[in-house]
Amino acid sequence: MPEYRKAPKGEWLGYPALKREDIEHESFGFTRFVAQSLVENRKGRVYLLMDSDLYKRFLDAVRKRFGSISTADVEKAALEAVGVWIEGVESK
Q1: Residues 21-58: pLDDT tens digits?
Q2: Residue 4 phi, psi dihedral angles, 5° rounding
Q3: 58 with 77: CB under 8 angstroms?
Q4: Cβ distance 58 to 65 under 8 Å?
Q5: Inter-residue contact 35 to 23 (CB < 8 Å)
Q6: pTM for the whole structure
Q7: 33-56: string of b/e by CB count within 10 Å (b at 16+)?
Q8: How far apart are CA 78 and CA 72, in angstroms?
């Protein structure tokens, strides 16, 4: 009887908090970017609309703290602000 390769598990596709380690099938091993995109696409997102004055103040603060307003620095600042806000709410 011919041997077939193991079929991909569909179970991990529904994980609410998917991690790279959850993706076991060999077809995702040939490139880390395919598996990484599956993980990244499951992460939560928050989109903000800011008045121009608040946005300018935010970018100025990011530049002062990190030295630039690159996408990575803006994301770090926003995640830090969210973390501080959550800690404040949880401590009450």
Answers
A1: 766 666 666 676 777 777 777 778 888 999 999 999 99
A2: -110, 150
A3: yes
A4: no
A5: yes
A6: 0.64
A7: eebeebbeeeeeeeeeeeeeeeee
A8: 10
Output the DSSP codes for the chain: ----PPPPPSGGGG-TT--GGG---GGGTS-HHHHHHHHHTTS--------HHHHHHHHHHHHHHHSS--HHHHHHHHHHHHHHHHHHHHT-
Contact between 44 and 18 under an 8 Å Cβ cutoff? The reply is no
Q: How many residues does the chain have?
A: 92
CA distance 82 to 91: 14
